[in-house]
Amino acid sequence: MSDPVQALESLREQFEQDLANARTESDLRAVRDRFLSRKGGLVSALLKTLGFRRRQVRATVAWSATTLAVVGLLVGIPAGVWLGRLAWRAVADGLGVPAVVTVPALALLLTIPAAVLLVNVVGLVPARAAARTRPAVALRTE
Fold first, then answer.
1. Domain extents for the chain?
2. pTM for the complete prediction?
3. What is the CB neighbour count within 10 angstroms for residue 63?
4. 1 has a pLDDT exceeding 50
5. How far apart are CA 30 and CA 74, in angstroms?
């Protein structure tokens, strides 16, 4: 059991070191590509090395996409409503009109499943590629 734990710890240390050394946007992209790329991503290779099947790797990518979307929506929707109200009040005050704010609740509620669905549809291509990753090829240079 210690081998997978050591492998995960080593991967985390490599990621943190590479992230700390990244100074430019291209450096950050290189780190992203090294650890998450469709061709030979270390994370998907490590998951397969730990015994994940293709279906489980695809499910992991889907859950990661869904989690990111939900967190973004939980932060973005309230922040957008709040900032929108502030901006509209400023504009309305400048125009001398009443600052009546209405929030389209149904549209906001429909945005949530639509965004989650969109993120998962977009994530199908990287999920399929991650599932096809051959661990030996991806981990060969490590």
1. 53-132
2. 0.60
3. 12
4. no
5. 29
